Amino acid sequence: MAYLGTPGNTVEILKKYNFNVQKKYGQNFLVDTHILDKILDASAITGQDCVLEIGPGIGTMTQYLAESAREVIAVEIDRALIPVLEETLSSYDNVTVINEDILKVDIRRIAEERNGGKPIKVVANLPYYITTPIIMGLFESGIPLDSITIMVQKEVAERMKAGPGTKDYGALSLAVRYYAEPEIIMQVPPACFIPRPGVGSAVVRLRRYEVPPVSAKDERYMFALIRASFNQRRKTLVNGLANAAGLPVTKEMAADALKQMGLSPTVRGEDLTLAQFARLSDFLAE
User: Fold this and answer.
1) CATH code 3.40.50.150 region(s) in the chain
2) pLDDT, tens digit (0-9, with 9 covering 90-100), for 54-77
3) CATH for 7-208?
């Protein structure tokens, strides 16, 4: 089977199976071997690694992964792609394809069964509409993770890297920084895909921290505060928290906590660092 990372081979296999691209699954197939090589380099996969690939599509990246890793578990939601993958991956005996929604897969069990509970590496070309739920699901599930190397919408990559006081800074920036160190590896223009997406993409590597850089007494409560702070971005933090459904925080409580931290009662959520949100969470939890 020929490598798929070229426009010609990709079009050929799509025509052979009369495959219609599904917009609902955000299907855009990468057709640039240079970028495939870069993703492989960034993920630093060795012959000892068990790799989870999310959304293998027609198997373009999977072929590369299979040649470097000990084992690849590829989770593909689209049933119509399963026969395609059976052909494109037929020469690799170290790949298992699971036809399932990644948000419903027990990844912890996969890591236990296939990798003895040791950290796995995740590689994915993520559909833009579901990027955040997948990333947060991977982090919050507590599965053993070494790194996540992903292709995402350029704007999402910038949000992951953003710092306090910038327009891109938000709940995703803080969540990613709590769990991992984000690094943008490269920008990827729309011309590198079939069909072309309407926006640019970027490859991001997230190296999982062994221990989070800040500690909060109640991690879930801290993230509830963070989400509430950015739900109404233009409001002050005090108003945002007081108006949030399900958060038992009054304006007085929020203002008092900020005062104890030496912060103005008119400060906005976008001005606080991760460490400050952890402190705020501890004050309000009491």
Assistant:
1) 7-208
2) 999 999 999 999 999 999 999 999
3) 3.40.50.150
Q: Tell me the three-class secondary structure of the chain, residue by residue.
A: CCCCCCHHHHHHHHHHCCCCCCHHHCCCEECCHHHHHHHHHHHCCCCCCEEEEECCCCCHHHHHHHHHCCEEEEEECCHHHHHHHHHHCCCCCCEEEEECCHHHCCHHHHHHHHHCCCCEEEEEECCHHHHHHHHHHHHHCCCCEEEEEEEEEHHHHHHHHCCCCCCCCCHHHHHHHHHEEEEEEEEECHHHEECCCCCCEEEEEEEECCCCCCCCCCHHHHHHHHHHHHHCCCCCHHHHHHHCCCCCCCHHHHHHHHHHCCCCCCCCHHHCCHHHHHHHHHHHHC
pLDDT of 166 > 80? The answer is yes
Task: Quick: pLDDT tens for 106-155.
Answer: 999 999 999 998 999 999 988 777 888 999 889 988 889 999 999 999 99
Indicate the class that CATH gives domain 219-285: mainly alpha
Which part of the chain is CATH 1.10.8.100?
A: 219-285
